[in-house]
Amino acid sequence: MKLAFDSLDLTLRGREILKTVSGQFQPGKVTVILGANGAGKSSLLSCLAGLREPQGGSVTLDNQPLFSLDNRERGRLIGLLPQRPDIHWNVDVKTIVGLGRLPHSGRWGMSDADHQAVARAMVATDCADLADRKAMRLSGGEQGRVLLARVLAGEPRWLLADEPLASLDPAHQFDVLERLKTYARAGQGVIVVLHDLTQAARFADDVIVLKEGNVLAAGPREQAMTAETMGEAYGVEIQMGTSATGEPLVVPVRRL
């Protein structure tokens, strides 16, 4: 189930955010969207999730216009973890995670399959031990894991995450990225906005680089994420290398 966008134009408050951009995403891969602040990353993700309709162009899912789907069907196919998500209800964690099953639940409430999906999601995000705690009393990192579990509980065909590493300690950052990669390897599609260039280099299969609302580069990570492209996108000199264990390192050196 391919997710694609074609000739997207988006203007917000008189400012061009996306400028006739096109691209596509393949299931089974982790695609990372990169770019400086204001490049259009979150806006593109909102369009792909069906939350914001562009003024021009189209978003298609398996060649079907995304905005022709009703909200419930779209919710079953695409799950979004937004930037800086908030928890506004002081209910227990398992209730928050259970909200991810709303597009699937029948009129009589959650089924056994729904409860099993919630349990799997909490285990996958290391928050099963938080199930009975009040969500608003958790730390920011714990809340981040709970909200990712809510998205995973919906078992979407496409999982979109906007800066999912915010507020997480390094160990849980690796856990989340590994979980997203596992989700992609199971045949689903994963699209992630990241600011950490080294993490992007380590976990991305494909990369889309945005600059001022345009696609600067797109393709397999090794081709799209070069020092030259990163330097142009961020306005800094970039050095790329490998760690002692052979993992990629991407280091900003100085402002250009």
TrEMBL record:
List UniProt keywords, sorted A-Z: ATP-binding, Nucleotide-binding, Translocase, Transport
Annotated GO MF terms: ATP binding; ATP hydrolysis activity
PROSITE patterns from the entry?
Answer: ABC_TRANSPORTER_2
Show the SUPFAM superfamilies listed in the entry: P-loop containing nucleoside triphosphate hydrolases (SSF52540)
Domain ABC transporter, by residue range, is: 3-237
Instruction: Report the protein's function.
Output: Part of the ABC transporter complex HmuTUV involved in hemin import. Responsible for energy coupling to the transport system.
Identification of the protein by name: Iron complex transport system ATP-binding protein
Q: Which organism is it from?
A: Parasphingorhabdus marina DSM 22363
Q: Mind giving the lineage of the organism this protein is from?
A: Bacteria, Pseudomonadati, Pseudomonadota, Alphaproteobacteria, Sphingomonadales
